Amino acid sequence: MAKPPSRRKKSTSAAFTDSTSAANSVNEDISQQVDPATATITVTAIEVPELTEEEQRDRLHLERRVERAFFEAGKALAELRDRRLYRSTHKTFEEYCRSRFGYTHRHVNYLIAASNVVDNIIMGTNGSQNEISDEMGTNGSQILPTSERQVRPLTKLEPSQQQEVWRQAVEQAGGKVPPARIVKDVVQRIMERTKVPNTYQIGEVCQILAKDNPELRGKGGCWGIVKHVGEFSCTVKLWDGVYTVGLQHLKSYDYLPAECQQMQVICDRISRVYSDSLEETVKSLLQLLGKVNRPYLTAVEEKLLNVLEIESRL
């Protein structure tokens, strides 16, 4: 039986014709494409509506609330501490702040000290100590701090010095809220200008560096409260007595004023308990408390000191 070769040829020919036509179509499409380098992209502009007067007022109010948040936190924490409003749930203020707010002891003291500095700055500007209102920050007639770090370098200065440093820092910042760097630079210049051989202050907490001084044997690492400032030495109260120590044997702990006051209280409590007639184990415990390198006692240390205070009164 004869094969029909003509059909196969037609089929092949049709397939070839379709393929050629498709290739030509593709080439034609490619040739009609625009060069990407010269292509024009049309972007539709989206109009951003301006803030209404009410929205502008709301934004300004909310910005000022953020700016004075650290101040209000410091004032609130100080009142919680002074009125002991934590006493129904916590034994110490430090424990309360740590569990309630997640704040460390030092952070709490920074906030409280910063709020006191802001009060002093306001007094220097207005002549009276008033609650901060909406003028705080960069948007009002007063230029006041907007963060705790801006005023941290001021905490160790006298109120009048705090006001002067802040005024100079604002001037250097071009009439705006100065960053912490500028405030720190101004403080450093004032400290260098008024520098004296002995920079320690009464009430400051410092560490004893015994080195090779036989008179300070056993006192290395102890902390003490400066009671008198001489030209080249300080009279320092330690856990077991009062000593005159040369400046080369002292190192400042750089505590905040509030922390120094707390350490003063602890030092007085230990001193009232201590006597030469105590057992050696008790003396050793008091000495350990006299070497803590933090401005507070832990809950266990507080309990131990309470027991010794009770025993000393019996």
From TrEMBL:
It comes from the Bacteria. It comes from Nostoc sphaeroides CCNUC1. Residues 12-23 have a biased composition (Low complexity). This is Site-specific DNA-cytosine methylase. Residues 1-11 have a biased composition (Basic residues). Residues 1-31 are annotated as: Disordered.
